[in-house]
Design brief:
Oligomer: homotetramer
Helix content of chain A: 40-55%
Radius of gyration of chain A: 20 Å
Order of helices and strands of chain A: HHEHEHEHEEHHHEHHEHEHEH
Distance between the termini of chain A: 27 Å
Largest interface: A-B, 71 and 71 residues
Largest sheet of chain A: 6 strands, parallel
Number of strands of chain A: 9
Shape of chain A: globular
């Protein structure tokens, strides 16, 4: 047994040192350190393909660069439509704003501000989105599946710090099964409502993610939040030999039975996770956990 | 100010009496009672269309009859694909089983049992699903959007206690933007992988839910869990005058910024909820809250 | 394996029937039913002494009658000082009030209202408490330990629906290691500050609870919330053979390492719980769980 | 409005830089940064007396040095008995150990290991505690209140890295209203059970903390966890003008009505917090939040 060592804060200590020190502690601090180690292992394992699932409003919360960093080692990216919409909104020149969760929602509404806990967004960003889709529809209208469509968006906006562009340029397959449930989905509907044509098959790119899971010698999963992204990756892993590495960052609880809060261990029963896999559940707001783990 | 009255348990007390008594108490017990009242109001308000969002494994947990009951007053139903798949699994003659969350997942895997917290499911249910889709593909293959597809499923299985059948028979529009992320999605992929043809547009039925929101004089929302169902309804409400009534049952927390945990009040800033709407957030496992509220 | 049976809500269904039905479901609904069964078993086991720990503002929330009911079968009662103070406040003729958690705290302060989430209390209740202690000090001043002092309070107030009175009359030992941390503690300090004498030993009644644990053939624990009450009972159980039955109702999480959220299973390592004990953790607001379990 | 700025991780970035960057983000990352700023302000405000409340097993989890650091600026320290016991255990030469929350509790019990989530402790530490109290009883037996007793313990163990010693040496008043509810309490009981005499008044040192609150020009509160330490400080603040600064680190939720999860804002209604106070609630495991905030 190894003794607990108490964390020491030194002047100008680096994050890397802190996370290393957390390894010798307990509770969730230790989990942060273990997650950091497992992430390193799955990146360094050349046979391992990393599947990244992203839920929760991480772009509005200021985590975009961290996601961009993670994408450098990602073989498969599944996101909520919301995060991709927020990424696109920023690429079109708009910002998210530092806000206050106790602000009066009625007054925010009058000011045209949408609240996401303590982050604000101007409602007029939707006008820029509409202009963008109106202007670029011809380039988008021939896409046949969601992955193609999202890559095409990334090609068009073409911004250094865009998640969509990064996925397009690095040919990282990007899945978003619930794209209809997002601002981007609304824009597509808006074009269709004007009589424009597009035909994006809801199931066409499932083949790609299942093939990826099937063909990978080893797989590593990294879930930031739960929701559809986690579940969609878990589903595809039924066609793999089971993941070899796993990290889940969520504050949801297993006791209420939902997929988002389920511990990674549960995946062993389904064959989605190997019984000897290295995995860890981190219970911490991802806006705090991510910068520490990525250090 | 009204004084708190202490709950009295009488021999053979009815649930209805208990929930009435909870009205005069505090904390979440009071919320249960308030939710029950608001549900009653939105049902009795003849101008109000009820939008029901369902996430979390409510069918495996034994809540199917309660959902069926709720559907009797529902004008728009949005669900995760998982709940619909579990509904279909039961319609095909399979059961979910009472389990133990501390069971050994490796042994469960060997026995062919998939674990959902303290509920088990036989992995072989997927074989029955495959047979069903194989056998009925001709009836399904011409569906053009997800709503049509799900109604068709409900028509084919044709079971009294099936959610899909109930929606089909009562013409309740049923949306599932992330259907690809479910066992039903896998089955569609399976048929496509065999070379069979189907073309289900990912955005086609957005028109229907947006029209519903747009045309309703009044709207009431009832969210069991968060996830895509909540978000998809919230999104459509941007095209309404804002909901008039709202109930949310979730244990997720607003502090982490995700859509699932956001309090209904936040929707006022977005114009998704009227500032004078009657709404309540209930923080309780839905398997406990639902039977009480529905009493 | 037993199949999940879906809950059916019938007209005028009793709570007892619902809780029975919950036994065949999953997630926390099932826990409610299991807790109800274990409670029945520990009450019916004539060799078993029940230790009840009470934390969280259950008296302000309207749960007093349920606690009184539980005390009928309790051999040892440990409470926060706050719950006993709120019980005393009500015995002196004051009420707690139904409130709103979104009320403006500054305005409440001006109105002399103290907020406990969605329950209000008039700040002037402290004046009645002061009068009571002033008037009855002579009867209290000779108490030598906390248990004696609390029984004496119960004897003086002498109300049918008082927890303190019930403990006094039924000779249920009542422990409150942190009594200083409560309104009652403040009143004792107030009398001392006026120069009155009293000498209550902080450790004197530990003997009683440890003897109880030591001498009981079997023990059953029932924790409503965590905190000092749970910990104090757990501590005494180290001197027993380990509890035979256990129920814990809390929404705190084990992942953060605190005693309040620790699962009962952890007690096995400490010898506080038998390895073959029947125990259950219920994750639900006690204001909802208690009336169901006690049905 | 200030735009959200995305966190950038640079090679060898310091914690200080990260926390500064978090200020421009959202969700709980921003709270970490705000807490860090408020802590700085209350330390630099020469008129402000800081009241530190400590609950949760922070010593076993490896946070002792951070607490020692905080004590340098603390005027009043309230702790659970458990943390002080764990501090004493380490001062007597024992360690806590890095463990696994999934370890078999029955086997741990056989090995004489007590589990605190993912931290282990040898059960035989109690023997060393007994020896210590046996040997030093004569020095302790004349203490008349809990504060004196704890200072005396700190004087006797006399270790550089002991919380008890630090409080003794720096004359930081240390309160522990529920000391009976801890290993130290057990040891006192053990001596009394052998017929040794000691008389520690349960309410004697309330005067000290209330005087401190009363006499302080300004007060700042820092709650690590909730429980008795938070509540005892809150109670004393009723005798102040209300706190000027406040930080609360907890994962407990306000919705269940307990004192531990109550937002600091609630204290305004009670007069425990000024309505214009600077305060922040951080929802994060303290083992992660503390090293960041203290950077």
């Amino acid at each position: 047994m190894k003794p607990i060592k108490h964390i020491k804060i030194k002047e100008n200590q680096t994050i890397k040192e802190l996370v290393k020190d957390m390894k010798e502690t307990g509770f969730q601090a230790k989990k942060i350190s273990q997650a950091s180690e497992i992430l390193k292992q799955m990146i360094e394992d050349k046979e391992c393909k990393i599947f990244l699932g992203l839920a929760g409003a991480m772009i509005p919360a200021g985590m975009k660069n961290l996601i961009l960093k993670l994408l450098e080692n990602t073989s498969c990216f599944v996101s909520t439509g919301a995060n991709l919409t927020h990424d696109l909104i920023e690429s079109l020149g708009n910002s998210h704003y530092q806000g206050d969760e106790n602000a009066n929602d009625e007054e925010l509404n009058k000011k045209g501000l949408d609240r996401i806990y303590n982050v604000f967004m101007e409602n007029k960003v939707y006008e820029d989105l509409e202009d963008f889709f109106e202007k670029n529809w011809d380039k988008l209208k021939d896409c046949k599946d969601i992955k193609q469509f999202l890559w095409k968006l990334g090609e068009i906006v073409n911004k250094e710090d865009s998640i969509l562009t990064k996925c397009y340029k690095n040919k990282i397959p990007i899945f978003c099964p619930a794209l209809a449930d997002s601002g981007i989905g609304l824009m597509i509907w808006g074009q269709k409502a004007k009589g424009k044509k597009i035909n994006i098959d809801a199931f066409e790119d499932m083949k790609d993610i299942i093939d990826l899971a099937w063909q990978s010698k080893k797989t590593g999963i990294l879930y930031i939040g739960g929701g559809t992204p986690k579940n969609f990756i878990q589903q595809s892993l039924q066609f793999s030999k089971g993941a070899d590495y796993g990290i889940q960052i969520t504050t949801d609880k297993q006791e209420y039975g939902g997929s988002s809060g389920a511990k990674l261990k549960e995946g062993i029963s389904w064959g989605k996770m190997k019984s000897n896999a290295k995995f860890i559940n981190v219970m911490c707001d991802a806006t705090i956990a991510l910068p520490l783990i990525l250090s």
